[in-house]
Amino acid sequence: MTFTPRFPAFLHGGDYNPDQWIDRPDILDRDVELMHEAHVNCVSIGIFSWAMLEPEEGVYRFEWLDSVIDRLWKGGIRVILATPSGARPAWMAQKYPEVLRVNDHYQRAHFGGRHNHCLTSPVYRRKVRELDTRLAQRYANHPAVILWHLSNEMSGSCWCPLCQEQWRGWLKEKYGTLDNLNAAWWTTFWSHRYTDWSQVEAPGGLGESSTNGMFIDWRRFSTWQCKTFMTAEKEAVQAVNPDLKVTANLMERFWDYDYFDLAEGMDVVSWDSYPMWHSGDDVARAAEFAMNHDMMRSFKDQPFLLMESTPSQVNWKPINKLKRPGMHLLSSLQALAHGSQSVLYFQWRKGRGAAEQFHGAVVDHDGRGDTRVFRDVTQVGKALETLQAPLYNAPKQPAQACIIYDWSNWWAIDYAQTGQAKNMQYFDTVNMHYRSLWQLGVNVDFRDERDCTDLSRYQLVICPMLFMLKESFAQKLRAYVEKGGTLLMTYFSGVVDESGLAWLGGAPHGLIDVLGVRATELDALFPEDQQALVMNDDRRYAIRELCEIPEMHGAETLGVYAEDFYGGMPCLTKHAFGKGQAYYLAAKAEQAGLDAIYAALADALALPRALTDTLPEGVIATERGGAIFLQNYSGKAQQVTLAGRYTDLLTGEAVSGTFDFAVNGVMVLAQ
Ligand code: GLA
Ligand code: ZN
After folding, report:
1. 153 labelled catalytic
2. Ligand with the closest atom to the CA of 317
3. Confidence band for 61, pLDDT divided at 50, 70 and 90
4. Nearest in space to 225 (alpha carbons), one of 182, 186, 181, 258
5. If residue 182 lies in a helix (H) or strand (E), which one and from where to where?
6. Would you kindly state where each structural domain of the chain is located, as residue ranges?
7. pTM of the model
8. Which of 62, 160, 413, 460 has its CA 20 to 30 A from that of 37?
9. What is the pLDDT of residues 306-319, one digit of tens each?
């Protein structure tokens, strides 16, 4: 599948800032030569170019960009063109302070930084629209331009008077009456009832700090605000050429906005991936980033783009370690294995000054094309060319397992004051469940509680910590099991409704008869506390942090608690319901426990696996388009034995039997 019909190829390249080098045409010429040497075919430009494009209000300077794009086009390099709304010129901040963001202590930012505009400001939106329109008129039909990159890494909220007014408007629309709002937010608590809309301020900072329902709505509102900002940009550029698609670059573990919702506003999801490799456990890191990739693929249920990654190191982590030999190819192909149609970097060439002076780049300050990093990048470029024919139009096999990951649920969990207080670890817990399936080579989709979610295509649906359970989604899960699906739900599920108000009548709401258990008390453990899950066959797995005490309503016990006053009581259960079955895991079991549970489920449900051979720990197989990406994250060379006979598409070599697999090795095996 292609998002870039003008150039249907795996994209290789990344952020390029020629505007920083405009007085060095020799360097700009050299860049194109070096791009060829590195097998780079595409660059993203203009991301932070507003001050160069509109140096004074209403004075537009496109000549430099014309010449950059023409130079690239002549050199056969394609362009992802950005709208520059991620940062604005000083003149604008000075003349129109309303474009600057206000924080939750009601302080307005001064000029500086980036990603800090007011999301409402009519002046900012007008200025963005004017420039976007001009950019589109000039370049949307240029044959080199293959995609729009809207703004950059959109994030955050603004507390200015304009945003506060919008917030109240959004609430009026949602609730209609203050009575409804007061009821949804449980405001009788601590005398927080509102009697006039004008009393409702945005939460946080100096303001409201105890009304969970309000916080959740504030996040939904912020998502909506960002989405309207983004779609206004989309409309501006697509008014000129509706066929040129738009993307916006998302981030890992991003909490501020609901990405399922935001992704609806763009044509293509792209994201910026910066794993901290070699900082302890690369297998855990790889599991985390595999999940990030699969989430990005899931937001629109289609392939995605890796918009940024570093060719070597970043410069904004506490410790900025270089990628060890092999890791660049391995981590780049990991993205491909999970559905990426690109490997793009931040950045092409290191700038001479400012904050990102020492951020890894394909071309260092020495300007050379014979460095280790340059060779690593070239290797990825060649690999993408080799994989183009077999894999570009070959997506992953449809997943038969699905994990529910819901942003409102995430916010609700983080705002709830219970259990492990502010450390309930939703993302990491989900990642543990994901990791078990990833290790087995089972493809996994992510879905949320939106009404459009269709569960019928999955054999297995997993709901880790689905604390906030909408009535409609509880019904959907129920129907899913009834018709023959397999559900695995964990502790701390079905506790509150979509306002964050506790369901009355028992948890998990609407599913007690489906699961055959009712959740009662939630216990939180201190790090030194001992607890374990003991399976019926005596296998024993440690439990940490959270344990729920279930009351049985017809389920069968598969494992019990080992210790304490609930020792011997059920911890893992199974219940037949309709044509399906529902599992309940009442505590946070260690990874090995989850691995055992999912290995049994994958077997019982015959979930498709990339490879059924037993692989050494840390060697992972991931399927895409019928090929198997074999990846070694174990941090050491491994001996692998495969039953089948394959060709490594990267090298053309035959692979079978027992062989040595290099540290950070990667193969793309086809039969
Ligand atoms: C983000 C930004 C880029 C750059 C990189 C550095 O992803 O989008 O502009 O700052 O980080 O890693
Ligand atoms: Zn604002």
Report:
1. yes
2. 1
3. very high
4. 258
5. helix 178-185
6. 11-161+238-391, 401-605, 619-670
7. 0.98
8. 62
9. 999 999 999 999 99
